[in-house]
Structure formats: structure tokens, C-alpha cells
Amino acid sequence: MVNMPNLWIEIDLDAVKHNYRQIISKLAPGVTLMAVVKADAYGLGAVPVAQALEEEGCRAFAVTRVEEALLLREHGIEGEILVLGPSSPEEWPQALAQRINLTVSRLEWIAEINEVARQLEIKAGIHLKLETGLGRTGFTREMLPALCEALKAAPYLDLRGVYTHLARGAQRDKTYTRKQHEKFVQYINILEENGINIPCRHICNSAGLLDFPEYHYELVRSGTLLCGHFPSPAFSGTIDLKDPWTVKAKIVHLQRVPKGTFVGYQSLYKCKKETTLAVIDVGYADGFGVAPKLVPQGFVDLIKIIIKNIAALFGFQLGREKVLFKGKPVKVAGKIGMQLTVIDMGNLECHPGEEVFLPLRRTLANSRIPRLYKKNGVICAKRVIREGILPINQE
Ligand SMILES: *Cc1c(COP(=O)(O)O)cnc(C)c1O
Fold it and tell me: Could you tell me the distance, in angstroms and rounded to a whole number, from the CA of residue 338 to the centre of ligand 1?
């Protein structure tokens, strides 16, 4: 029996495996699904998720940083691992020694990585990143001739693939995505005309994967779908996904209070009648009640955001965070604190130690919150992160 903390996240690895199988069933034979497990597999835990996917037959993974890739190798992940983000020269020897593939998005890196690989007497696996409209990293059209020359002078590089990343894949209007794809095709033609052999092309993320089967090429990259979510509500239900993510907190304090009781900082909440207030051990430091800054998607959305803000100014919190207690929605009372939150239980019968279910965004959930992993409905592993303190050697 696992000793339960006051706040924890349950992750159902069978759901992740289910999602993997569902995505695979949408791909033509020969198309590889590269599992994107960056940012700690979107908060689920990169190592257990990658291990579960490897059991399911997944052989290609992607992360943003070299340290994320090294962590997977340390935990026995055998498959191909691609680092999507830029890397630095200090990281290359270790990455190459661990058979980690690097994304190359700058010309100088070709000769530099080639030199590191030569010294190590190994071949460096690389993917080229093309800039087709995201405006982040990659080679533009003008750089391609010089890129081809540099590649030909780099015998220790093993060009595994060429890719680009979509900017508006999740939006309804597909025009921009088509333009990005046109550029991608054009750039690849230029590379090939210059004698560069490209074994693998990839452009699709989760949205592209669902919307553009004709853009799958040899490989597609997906993270969002594996985690059981759709890139936008418009995609809902297009494939059968299971959500592996459940956040639970125990009631750690209970109090019956009279009508008129103020709750929380700035007294933003006033109890309308006698009620029971419960405290749970979660707050904004854990990522609760924190949301990314949203840009309104259209006029109606803008109006909604304005109304919400005006209401808040007059002390009405619209769209207040809710938690679930025994299947019933319960309101958060007042402002969410740094690590404690009060919920208004009304007259529901409840006891200390009972569980509530919380909405908590996967990528914002603090990595310090323990993760409990389930397989076949039972908890099989627990992850608790305690940061060690290392002295810095001053020379
Ligand atoms: C994050 C990321 C993906 C995965 O995107 P999803 O929409 O989560 O599937 C694919 N490619 C790159 C380059 C990424 O950074």
C-alpha cells in the first residue's frame, strides 16, 4: 500500500498506451510516430511515459533539450531520441556518445558538430530544421546553397531527417499551413537537387497529423494526443483518446462558519449562509488556478474576457475554479493561496482526509507534486522529486 500524500497526480499509463495505439491506427504503414515527451511529457513524467510507449513498440522520441534526452537514456530508453531545440557545443560530446540526434538550425554547427564526431570517431545523427513560417529557428531559403556545401564537407554527420514546425496547425483556417507546406516541399527539392539525400521528412504535429494525412511523409511528431488531449476543441472526438491525468487532494481542515464570513486574501469571498469551509493543500505555487495568458480567438471571445474582467472589478468572480467532491462540483472560495485553497462545501457531509478532484493544467502542474503511476488499474510506481543542493566549485 502506498502512503498517500495530501496532493498527488495519478497517471494511467494504460491510457497513454491506448492513445498511442489509436494514433498509430491513423497512420499509413511505414509512417513513424515520434512521441514528443518534452517538458516532462507535458507534466506526466517523461521517463515512465517513454517506458510505457517503448513497451507499446514506440521507437522514436523527441524532447526540447539535451538534458531531457540524457535523462531518458539514463533510464534505459533505447529508441531514437531527437533534441528539437537548439543545443550548445558543451553538450554535444555527451549527447553524441549517447546516440542522441541533434537538430541543426545554424550553419556553423555543421562543421562544429562534424569535428566533435570526428574526435569521438562516431557518426553524429542530425535533423535539419527548416524555417517555413514559425519564425523561431531553422534555415531559410537563402541559406540552403551554403547549407548543402557545408553538409558535403561534413563526412561525420549522418543526416537522418529534415523537418519544419507548423505555426497555425490548430486553427480553422488552413491557408497558412498550406503555405508552410509549400515552402517545405520547395526547400526539400532544393536540398535534393544539390545532391543531399533525405531519408526522412516531417512537418506534422498533433494538429497536422489529424488534419493533413497527405503531409505525414515518413514521420509525424505528436505529444498532445498521446497525453489524451486535442490541439483545439475543434478536433474533439476525431479519434478516441483517453485522459491519463487525475489530480487529487485530501481535505486537510474543516470548519463550520456563520453567514457573512469572509474568506481569503482581500476578502473577495463572503459566505451567503452558514456553510462548511474545507481547506486543501494546493495553491498557485503548484500551478492551481494558473492559466497561460490567452489571446482572444475572435470577437465573441474578446467580449467574454472583457465581461469577466469588469465583473471581477466589482467583486464577482466569474468562471471561478471548481473542484469535484464525490462527483459534485464545489466552488473555490476566495483567492487561491500560494499553497492552500479554501473550498465552500455548503451542507455536504465531508470529513478530513476525503479526496477532491482538481482541474490542474498538465504543463503547469509543479513537478514537485508526487506522480503515482497506474497500470491495469493499480498503482505500480511513484515519483517524488526532491531537489538536491550541489556546491559550485569556484576556481
Ligand atoms: C511540441 C512539439 C511537437 C508536438 O506538438 P503537439 O501539438 O503537442 O503534438 C512537435 N514538434 C515540435 C518541433 C514541437 O516543439
Answer: 31
